[in-house]
Amino acid sequence: MQLGTLYLIPVPLAENASAKSFTPYLVDTINHINEYIVENSKTARRFLKEAGLKTPQSELIVHDYGKHNRDAHVNDFFKGLLSGKDVGLMSEAGCPGIADPGAEVVAIAHAKGIKVVPLVGPSSILLALMASGFNGQSFTFHGYLPIDKLQRANKVKELESVAERHSQTQIFIETPFRNDSLLEEILKSCKPDTRLCIACDITAEGEFIQTKTIRDWKLKIPQLHKRPTIFLLFKRV
To answer: How far apart, in Å, do the first and last CA atoms of the chain sit?
Structure first.
């Protein structure tokens, strides 16, 4: 029996950003399938509606792979795919599998011999890198830095050192309500001529993306509390 295809379906990064996020191919794809593996059922259904879903929501099969369901029901997610049905995978925001637990679903799909097709859509990490002016040929995404203040300070200094030694862009994030404390640590720990890009609320109406030296950021510190933000460090040798 032929296996189905797992489509990786990006979703908007912000409110009122659907026009910036959905391609005609994506719209065609969601109207071709009626089964989804999602991180949050409520928001996934809203995104599908915004994208132009014509299938009645009552006819959708939606598997929730939120943090409370990932281990118990993972094999159930693949019954449709293994029987030949095409299925969509959606994250809570952005691209499935990029800083997203959906990567586990994709890994299992490969192990089962299921074809995986990524659709074009917004990735806050890549959009921030594009807009930073930093090295786009050599970069590392570190995810979240340590919460412990001493460990975090050491990690920031380590990333700055790597950026300087290898001319490599260092990218990281923080839980939005801790953004301001992370920025404070970056400004305290880094050298004055190290460059920092702050990419905040990407694709939203209040999008803020600026690159400055640490010295210049200290002159006017932005308020980032509860605003989705990507931080990028870079320093040319």
So the answer is: 56
Within 10 A of 82 (CB to CB), how many other CB atoms are there? 14
Measured in residues, the chain has a length of 237
Question: In sequence order, which ranges of 53-119 are alpha helices (DSSP H)?
Answer: 79-82, 102-111
pLDDT over threshold 70, residue 44? yes
Q: Which residues pair with 198 in a beta bridge?
A: 210, 231
Say yes or no to pLDDT of 35 above 80: yes
Mean pLDDT, rounded, for 86-115:
94
> Would you tell me which CATH number, out of the four given (3.40.718.10, 1.20.1250.20, 3.40.1010.10, 3.10.180.10), belongs to the domain 5-118?
3.40.1010.10
User: Is the confidence at residue 178, as pLDDT, over 70?
Assistant: yes
Q: What per-residue confidence (pLDDT) applies to 72?
A: 59
Specify the pLDDT at position 236.
79
Residue 3, Ramachandran bin (φ over 0: left; ψ between -120 and 50: alpha; else beta) = beta
Q: Are strands 169-173 and 208-213 parallel, antiparallel or unpaired?
A: unpaired
3-state SS assignment for residue 6: strand
Residue 92, helix vs strand vs coil: coil
Supply 168's token pair: 């490599």
Question: What pLDDT does 53 receive?
Answer: 95
Alpha-carbon distance of 223 to 26, in angstroms, equals 35
What's the pLDDT at 16?
A: 87
The alpha-helical segments, DSSP class H, found in the chain are: 24-30, 41-51, 79-82, 102-111, 124-132, 149-166, 179-189, 214-217
Cα angle vertex 79, ends 75, 82, to 5°? 110
